[in-house]
Structures are given as structure tokens and as C-alpha cells.
Design brief:
Blueprint (H helix, E strand, L loop, with lengths): L5 E2 L10 E12 L4 E10 L3 E5 L10 E5 L3 E11 L2 E11 L6 H10 L3
Antiparallel strand pairs: 1-2, 2-3, 2-5, 3-4, 4-7, 5-6, 6-7
Length: 112
């Protein structure tokens, strides 16, 4: 068995392996103009597991900024207490290919 930092098991329902991480993130609820901080505990190209003291994610799409480097449009895949699985529906690298409207939103989310 490989001893890399990838997280996987036979009972895992993900299509892609996630790697264990400890990153900070910021959630943005677009309709309500509310933001919340979270911790990202594992991450793949297609999703993430986040934890937070009281994560109340909407059923519709929302945004998550990870480590001020990437922006993802996401939806909740599952919930379990203070943990949530996210499925990314669109992703942008903030330094490369994010549309101007996404960059403007990202800047608005940064702490002042």
C-alpha cells in the first residue's frame, strides 16, 4: 500500500482521490451576501471536505475561496455534524483564468 497523503477507501464514493490538507477557506453565500470562515481538511480537483463550528450551507450553489489561490463554485454533497462534503461545479485559479467578475467578488471577500 502506498503511504502518500491521498485519502481513499473502498467505501469512498468520490470519483477522485482527495489529499489531506489543513487550509483556511472562506464561504460566500451569494444571495444573502454573507461570508463564513471554514477549514479545509481534504481536497481534490472535484471537491473538498470542510469543517467549521456551525456550517449552514445553502442547498443552492455558493462560492468557496481556498488559501487566496483558487475560487470554486460548489454545492453541498453531504453533511455530518460540523463536517460537509463539497462538490465543485466550476473552479478558477485566481492568478490565471478567473473571470473579472469572480476576481471582483474574491477581492470583496478578503478580510480588511
Amino acid at each position: 500500500m502506498d503511504s502518500t497523503a491521498d485519502v481513499s477507501s473502498q467505501s469512498d464514493r468520490r470519483g477522485k482521490l482527495r489529499r489531506r490538507v489543513l487550509l483556511s477557506g472562506k464561504l460566500a453565500y451569494l444571495d444573502e451576501r454573507i461570508t463564513a470562515d471554514c477549514s479545509i481538511r481534504n481536497l481534490s480537483d472535484g471537491g473538498a471536505m470542510i469543517v467549521g463550528p456551525e456550517i449552514h450551507l445553502p442547498n443552492e450553489l455558493f462560492l468557496i475561496v481556498i488559501k487566496q489561490a483558487s475560487l470554486h463554485e460548489a454545492r453541498t454533497a453531504w453533511r455530518d455534524g460540523n463536517r460537509c462534503g463539497l462538490e465543485f461545479t466550476k473552479s478558477w485559479r485566481l492568478s490565471d483564468d478567473a473571470p473579472a467578475s469572480m476576481l471582483q467578488l474574491w477581492r470583496a471577500l478578503l478580510p480588511r
